[in-house]
Design a protein that fits this description.
Radius of gyration: 25 Å
Shape: globular
Strand content: 5-15%
Strand order of the largest sheet: 4-11-10-9-8-5-6-7
Number of strands: 16
Largest sheet: 8 strands, mixed
Helix content: 40-55%
Bound molecules: pyridoxal-5'-phosphate
Distance between the termini: 40 Å
Oligomer: single chain
CATH topology of the largest domain: Aspartate Aminotransferase, domain 2
CATH class of the largest domain: Alpha Beta
Amino acid sequence: MYDDSSARIVAGLREWIAAAAPGARLPSSRALVAQYGASPVTVQKALRTLTSQGAVETRPGVGTFVRAVRVARPNDYGWQTAALGPRPKAVQQLSRALHSVPNDVIALHSGYPDRELLPERLVRAAFNRAARSEAAVTRSPAAGVPELQAWFAAELGAASPVGIAPPAPSDVVVFPGSQASLSTTFRALVGAGRPLLVESPTYWGALLAADQVGVQVVPVPSGPQGPDPDALARAFAQTGARAFYAQPHFANPTGARWSPELSDEVLRMAREHGAYVIEDDWAHDFGITQDVVPLAARDDGGHVVYLRSLAKCVSPAVRVAGLVARGPARERILAGAQAESMYVSGMLQTAALDVVTQPAWRTHLRGLRQQLAARRDLLLGALREHVPAARVEHVPQGGLNLWVRFPDTTDTARLVQDCEAAGVVVAAGDEWFPAEPTGAYLRLNYSGPNPGAFPEGARVIGEMLARQA
Ligand SMILES: Cc1ncc(COP(=O)(O)O)c(C=O)c1O
């Protein structure tokens, strides 16, 4: 993003360019500095932007000139229709949760926390140090930088009760984000055409990854307390599935957190059926009133394959996640990871490790907990006030979002559209359902920018809902 002043210069010069002839010379940098009352650096930044957009060209020592407009010839990609064949079901739209939106809207849709919730100073310092380290110019091992492997293993091991062997660093495979690890794991442990049990609703990205890999998703009803154990047992028995993808803590989207009894029951079923539980611990660092004790910490028999991402809590630019798997599963997953991406940038791994091993990281997490609590309660209060018809069945004890149910008659697609037209971006719950949605839901994220605007966001949602009455 540009800062405000360079965006202003770009906009002004674009108008000037539109009225100028091709080849016309732009005012000198000095003249622009005077005209816009901006610093030379900002003017240069604006000129670089216009150059990268193809609007001007700079001839060193001579000046900057308007580029001749090339008339765009429409390309004919029709031949690709025959080459690609019919569109498979798997080619889905990018989830709304990943849409980038302008700064002036109220964004309640995103899955990644706003930068003011990130340890920005730690991240910048870590990148500076990483840039000066060997990591900037070397290839890291396929399974990950050993120190980072050791950190992921130690974090999980610290939660292991007495009598359960903690994982070893060599059980860890580092991935470029946990999304990548989902595809690889589904491919390695399930395979095309075979069943994978999933909670319903569940993370849309896991459904997308499963679709891409071609595994058969089998939905198991899940609610504020987690999956229904009877339905899970039936699904294991009826399908012969050998894997269950689940989020035992602060599930996206429901916010559910499994009780210790349910965790034991699921582990027991996994053992009984010789199956894996693929535990996505995406919100490990987003506990508000509860900490996460991973299911994987209770298992040393290789049944739980554990995923922990640092991309949300450290920075979305640090796409690093650790996967812990024991036994041959780990070898299969590593082989898949190598085939897909060979290795993860050592720069990113080194920066990630630097951040999470600073004493200030713990301080940051403590502050984050308070900020998330305040934001969650602010959004909850705003919904109660402005959208009384909406129900939050479960106030999450961690995570980043509320799962909000609307009256069954609600047309969620229209609600999303109307809200967006009024400057409030929300995500329809439909994307989180592997089958038909069982209700009208929105997933509202309370970790986005500008929490001060939550009441206004809720007011708009209430107003647009009222229009459907
Ligand atoms: C439950 C869950 N798992 C995995 C991911 C992917 O995270 P990453 O950024 O590590 O790829 C997300 C991102 O929204 C998520 O919500």
